[in-house]
Amino acid sequence: MSAGRLTLPAPAKLNLMLHILGRRADGYHELQTLFQFLDYGDELDFALRADGQVQLHTPIDGVPHDSNLIVKAARKLQALSGSSLGADIWLKKVLPMGGGIGGGSSDAATTLLALNHLWQLGWDADRLAQLGLTLGADVPVFVRGHAAFAEGIGEKLTAVEPAEPWYLLLVPQVSVSTVEIFNDPLLTRDTPAIKVRPVLEGNGRNDCQPVVERRYPEVRNALNLLGKFTDARLTGTGSCVFGAFPSKAEADRVSHLLAETLTGFVAKGSNISMLHRKLQSLF
């Protein structure tokens, strides 16, 4: 890291389970989910600016510059902290949009943590996570960087230590709208609450999966193909599906078998995000 520059990863996440408990008066859903990170993700490069301008130099198709969560995160942190500094930002994007693996939320969290250091704000994790929640329900878990059992709308986090297997993720070439799935009249919204221990023992499902399968045959096909080798599940509201394997070699073997049909990648599950491991090594 050179003075005034910082390069950090923005890891993917999995929802190992996702239960919808009910719908609140404000339209948000009460849920329970289990977050775990992957050692795979986007990468962001930050360079300090003295003129207060925030500029993302990597355009994203279909996302206007000022609507990108990276820019929103930077400008919101700037406004709330009163910092007069700015940043040039470059993004190496590998996580699919609408994949359910947290790409936009992870990018936003990495931006908050990076600029907290570059602008020398000294904000703690609680304050950054509170700001992150205004950008998206998944942002706080990326800010905190530890696998977690989440409740509420996803912001009430309890750190947990699930097993860390190798995963194969398949990436159907569709972008699933979270709003669309949560507004579907057939979405299960009355799953009883469950305690942390049963979740860690493997009890749980993804209540969004039947809705996504019905709406997106590409996702249903991916689940069926991966399901021939392991327990295949949807992460978040999709579109990515995943399965756990005891070794990288086994995950790679199945990946090669399915490569002609679907794109995907193999990654290690991690209870400490690679973003936080990188930060710990730097500071």
Classify the beta-strand content into a percent band.
25-35%
Order of helix and strand elements from N to C terminus: EEEHEHHHEEEHHHHEEHEH
Count helical runs. 10
And the CATH topology? Ribosomal Protein S5, domain 2
* Residues in helices, as a percent range: 25-40%
Tell me the total number of β-strands.
10
Inertia-based shape? globular
Radius of gyration: 19 Å
- The CATH class designation is Alpha Beta
* Ends apart, CA distance between termini: 11 Å
Mean of all residue-level pLDDT scores: 95
- How would a textbook summarize the main sheet? 10 strands, mixed
Q: In CATH terms, what is the architecture?
A: 2-Layer Sandwich
Structural class: alpha+beta
Low-confidence stretches: none
How many domains in all?
1
Tell me the layout of helices and strands.
Elements: E1 5-23, E2 29-49, E3 54-56, H1 69-81, E4 86-92, H2 103-118, H3 125-133, H4 139-144, E5 148-151, E6 156-159, E7 166-170, H5 178-182, H6 196-200, H7 209-215, H8 217-226, E8 233-234, E9 241-245, H9 248-258, E10 264-270, H10 274-282
Helix pairs in contact: 1-2, 7-8
Can you walk through the features of this model?
A hairpin with a 4-residue loop joins strand 5 and strand 6. The chain is of the alpha+beta class and 283 residues long. Strands 1, 2, 3, 4, 5, 6, 7, 8, 9 and 10 form a ten-stranded mixed β-sheet that branches. It has helices at residues 69-81, 103-118, 125-133, 139-144, 178-182, 196-200, 209-215, 217-226, 248-258, 274-282; strands at residues 5-23, 29-49, 54-56, 86-92, 148-151, 156-159, 166-170, 233-234, 241-245, 264-270. The model has no long low-confidence stretch (mean pLDDT 95). It starts with a strand and ends with a helix. It is globular. It is built from ten helices and ten strands. The protein has a single domain (1-283), classed as Ribosomal Protein S5, domain 2 (2-Layer Sandwich).
